[in-house]
Amino acid sequence: RIVPPPGSGQRIYEIDPLLRNYRDHLDYRFSQYRKLREAIDTFEGGLEAFSRGFEKLGFTRSETGITYREWAPGAKSATLIGDFNTWNPNANVMTRDEFGVWEVFLPHNADGSPAIPHGTNVKIRMDTSSGTKDSIPAWIKFSVQVPGEIPYNGIYYDPPEDERYVFKFPRPKKPKSLRIYESHVGMSSTKPVINTYANFRDEVLPRIKELGYNAVQIMAIQEHSYYASFGYHVTNFFAPSSRFGTPDDLKSLIDKAHELGLVVLMDIVHSHASNNTLDGLNMFDGTDNCYFHTGPRGYHWMWDSRLFNYGQWEVLRFLLSNARWWLEEYKFDGFRFDGV
Length: 340
Prior knowledge:
Blueprint: H1 12-15, H2 23-44, H3 47-50, E1 58-61, E2 65-71, E3 77-82, E4 95-96, E5 101-107, E6 120-128, E7 131-135, E8 142-144, E9 153-156, E10 180-184, H4 197-210, E11 215-219, E12 222-223, E13 236-240, H5 247-259, E14 263-268, E15 273-274, E16 299-300, E17 305-306, H6 313-329, E18 334-337
Parallel strand pairs: 10-11, 11-14, 14-18
Antiparallel strand pairs: 1-2, 2-5, 3-6, 4-5, 6-7, 6-9, 8-9, 12-13, 15-17, 16-17
Helix pairs in contact: 4-5
């Protein structure tokens, strides 16, 4: 699949003549976009390859073992720790490339089983200018809060083939017009509880269909440690919220929606991120500018959150790959982008 290069950008003035009053500024903005697209095409092989960061960064498994890569340019040293190596910081020391990407390879065990068992805790420990920092991997696929604890724990999520949910139904055809039911899984129960993906699938989706909607927009999917943020203070961008169930439970929900002919939209948050330093991206490698603008420009005082630096190459890779991940891994049909 080829993502075509941008055109001249001039037809917008035919569609909306009032925009001609801002032509100089809009042409400048569009020229900057074209330069960036050309750079991505030149150095990354196009958007098709650039948006597949999850195939290289984070945890990837091959026939021989698990490779873990993490972009943390501010770190002086890094090591992978977790239940699998009894949290020994000397067991799996990582090496750094010229772009600030750290890497370590863990060969499979002698019996062929993965070196990191599915469902176990993992973290990256970094020596930084502000001291030792233990962080949940930025590309973690699942994160869970242990009862009685406040910070979340990063989980290595890679179930055996026979335990993974297999989608059964194709995506519905794109509707001529959308009738969207906006929803929040946790708040969708008639009882005073945090609802589950499974209950939403079985109890709520049929009601949405019966009411005549053809699309469901789901909020608060990306993991957020502060529940009252309504899903807008994301801590783990590639992980579906564990409050409602497992990643496979979410897949089952989306598959059921497709069976009912419902398009599934995700309320995605790429405009800002949680201010948390223990389980989020803030101060990830000990610096305040790893994923975000430094100083006041990188902090939204009204939202109490960090603002991404879209000028950072790896931030673009992270967010574009994140959007693609939700489309490909979970079969979401589209997005409502928060904070645009």
